[in-house]
Amino acid sequence: YVDLCYLNKIKYLQLHFTDDPIWTYPMDEFPRLGKEGTKYSKEEIKYLVEYAEEAGVQLIPEFEGIGHSKQLILAYPELFGNTYEEETEEVQAVTGPNMGKVDNIMCIGKPGIFENIQKMLADIAKTFKYSEYIHIGCDEAKHENWSHCSDCKAYMERQRIDSTKKLYSHFVEKIVDMCISLGKTPIVWEGFPYEGTENISRDCVVVAWESH
Question: Which residue, of 21, 37, 140, 146, has the greatest Cβ tally within 10 A?
Fold first, then answer.
């Protein structure tokens, strides 16, 4: 793909490393993420970074934040998983009856959640040293489920946030600020609520895909 970008004078190549079905990016501080044989090695990633730089192609690593995080939650439920008080129909609609209450939404109320995400983003920023951007996803999260999570409800009370839509935007705001603090321009998918977005930095790039 880097060669194709070079030949066609395409400047950017986005790498979709993480999603619900699979996790392919290696992280030293979170070794349980990804299975051997299905994730890249650090050496492979470093080689790709240098190869793309020589070709004049800027890589954009994508780390799916908030939603699309099932693999992250399966590997580290104690760090990222929601604590549901009851098995409601709304919760079942996302987790499924046989998923053991594992959904694809990070728990915003887990102790240390933002510190752990900061570690992940710092790892990505360091590895992709030539990249101006980090894509952090942030779309399609079933935020309604947070109203059934005891950790999220406690966090909302502490932060005086009165809806899960505003909590969603609050999470986007925090991750966007982390990227900026690391010297990277954050990119997000369109698809998060309008409520609370006035607090999100306008230095963030929004990719519009809901054109309908």
Answer: 146
